[in-house]
Amino acid sequence: MSKRQYVDFHIIQTVPPANLNRDDQGNPKEARFGGVRRARVSSQAWKRATRRAFDDKLPEADHSTRTKRIAGQLTERIASRTGVEAEAAARIAGALLEPLGIKAGKKAGDTAYLLFFGYRQLDDIVDLIADEAKTLAGLDDEQLKAATKDLPVADRLKSGHPMGVALFGRMVADIPSLNVDAATQVAHAISTHAVEIESDYYTAVDDENEADESGAGMIGNVGFNAATLYRYATVGVHQLADNLGSVDAALEAVARFAEAFALSMPTGHINSFAHRTRPSLVAVVVRDDQPVNLVSAFERPIRNADGIAATSAARLAEEYERSSRQWGDTPVHVAVSHAFDNDGDLTAAFGANQPFSRLLSGLNEALTASWETN
Question: What are the counts of helices (DSSP H) followed by strands (DSSP E) for the chain?
Fold first, then answer.
């Protein structure tokens, strides 16, 4: 597809004491940027949260999953669709997947790595053998292998991608033909200011203690921090349309991604911290040149103790205007939804404040008009 178009998402979001995404020591992840320590939430953590929020709004058949247990998933579908016994269904599933050359994992039935695919793609594989399943169940291993080796199983995984796979892509290092180029890039979220890790020393009382017993039944430490985060992601509409085989499907996927990315939240230690918040600002910029991450707005860490989020939003608007002037940017569409009262800088940069629902519908209208004239 000749037209190239990107939708950039810029988000300012404040999170209270939390441990959204832990490192190998169990502490919140960090990064050094602009000479100071920042809170960090990895792109992988927020992509998974986005994928789960994305699928929540879709019929189950259109969900995607990332797992080592594709054989087990396929076995369950063969058994439920065709009525063959579970053991026979497992043999058929193994025979169907073997020609793909996917490496086996250490645990029986697992693959060596996570595979990302759609439930509907598995159903399409079952379609290949549904009518002959009972016959296949009666064959020995060699006969079964011969009967299934030429079936176009790989083709079912190479086409008909669900929106999740089309957005986030799939990497299979030793089988390049199964790769799907991601249409979405998600940056590591970092705080707009310096952050120090704190520790919550907690105790838990044994409810069944005798009256004369004292002390805790359990003690421990949990690291946490609180931060105003800058979050960024971009979607290549052209790549998404190519992955899905349809511009209309791509525009629907962009709208669904916009909502899921903005409103999702990683769930690390969520029962301990109840850290789910809404963004203070969501800005979208549609561009025909290249994606632009505006994290440079926060290279100089914000030190304002009275309104870090508001200062962060103003700094973001300033950086967007500076960058646009410097490089002569001419975006196709710009819009913002935010929760600030004093929004003069934001209006000058991104336009008038809109309800989030209007931002989403306006984005869809702008993309539709852009692609109809292509």
Answer: 14, 11
Q: Looking up tokens 């079964």, which residue turns up?
A: 144
Residue 291 CA to residue 350 CA, distance in Å, equals 16
CB 243 within 8 Å of CB 183: yes
The C-alpha angle with vertex 11 and arms to 254 and 198, in degrees rounded to 5, equals: 130
Q: pLDDT tens-digit profile of 128-153?
A: 999 999 999 999 999 999 999 999 99
Q: Give the separation between CA 345 and CA 321, rounded to whole angstroms.
A: 10
Give the count of alpha carbons within 13 A of 306, CB side only: 0
Amino acid 177 reads: S
Tokens of 4: 């190239």
Q: Which 3 state secondary structure label does DSSP give 34?
A: coil
Q: Cα–Cα distances in Å, from 189 out to 11, 28, 266, 303?
A: 9, 12, 12, 18
Of 358, 355, 337, residue with least CA distance to 255: 358
Spatial separation of the C-alpha atoms in residues 64 and 66, rounded to whole Å: 7
- List C-alpha distances in Å: 331 to 284, 289, 323, 324, 336: 10, 9, 12, 9, 14
| Structural contact between residues 266 and 39, judged by C-beta atoms closer than 8 angstroms | no
Task: Write down the domain spans for the chain.
Answer: 6-59+183-373, 65-161
- Scored b (16 or more CB within 10 A) or e, 342-361 reads ebebbeebbeebbebeebbe
CB contact set of 89 (below 8 Å; sequence gap of 6+): 75, 76, 78, 79, 82, 133, 137
Burial of 171 (0-12, 13-18, 19+ CB in 10 A): middle
Beta bridge partners of 336: 283, 353
What is the phi/psi pair of residue 269, to 5°?
A: 55, 30
Rounded to an integer, what distance in angstroms lies between the CA atom of residue 46 and that of residue 286?
22
Which residues have a Cβ under 8 Å from the Cβ of 323 and sit 6 or more positions away?
Answer: 292, 294, 296, 329
pTM: 0.92
Q: What size, in residues, is the chain?
A: 374
Q: What is the pLDDT of residues 54-97, one digit of tens each?
A: 999 999 999 999 999 999 999 999 999 999 999 999 999 999 99
